[in-house]
Amino acid sequence: MTSAALARRAFLSLAAASLVAACTRVERCATCGMRIDPKSTWRADLVTANGVVHFDTPRCAFVAWRGARTAASSLMVADFYDQRWQSADSLRFVIGSDVVGPMGADLVPVDPARVAKFMSDHHGARALALAEITPDVLSSL
């Protein structure tokens, strides 16, 4: 094979690899950079004026939001029990339980009607409303 043919083959291989990489872009958490599993129930989305910002866990979303890195109008998370996406202001966030997220200790979103059950089953320390989650709470995790 001539050097021109080898160069052409190398170029086409590189072009094909670049095309595949562009089509399979991996979504990353806006706070920590961890790969976001699209099927994960730990994902969280902050709705901003510029669109939706994705996170791998509620903790990462709160760090961005409460740390004033992202101005958001709402936070969407999945309830622990039914995995249904809901606005964070309709849930409670349990800390100090034996349930851990993909990156360790996290805020577990639970429907208020099931908080007592979750605390009993998973030994949660506190259940917090959205407004109670401050930078101090986040740094204690």
Q: In brief, what are we looking at here?
A:
The protein is built from four helices and seven strands, in the order H-E-E-H-E-E-E-E-H-E-H.
Secondary-structure blueprint of this entry?
Elements (H helix, E strand, L loop, with lengths): L2 H21 L20 E5 L2 E5 L2 H9 L5 E7 L6 E3 L4 E4 L12 E3 L4 H8 L3 E3 L6 H5 L2
Task: Describe, in plain words, how this protein is organized in 3D.
There is one protein chain. The relative contact order is 0.13. This protein has a 4-stranded antiparallel beta sheet with strand order 2-1-3-4. Strands 6-5-7 form a 3-stranded antiparallel beta sheet, with helices on one face. The termini are far apart. The chain has one domain. It is built from 4 helices and 7 strands. It has 141 residues and is α+β, with helices and mostly antiparallel strands.
Give the helix proportion (percent range).
25-40%
Q: Give the biggest beta sheet.
A: 4 strands, antiparallel
How many strand elements? 7
What count of domains describes the coordinates? 1
Please tell me the overall pLDDT: 83
Low-pLDDT residue intervals, each spanning 5 or more residues: none
Which oligomerization state do the chains in this entry correspond to? single chain
Strand content: 15-25%
C-alpha end-to-end distance: 61 Å
Choose one word for the global shape: elongated
Radius of gyration: 20 Å
Summing up helix and strand content along with how strands pair, one would put the structural category as alpha+beta
Number of continuous helical runs: 4
Q: How are the strands of the largest sheet arranged?
A: 2-1-3-4
SSE string, helices as H and strands as E: HEEHEEEEHEH
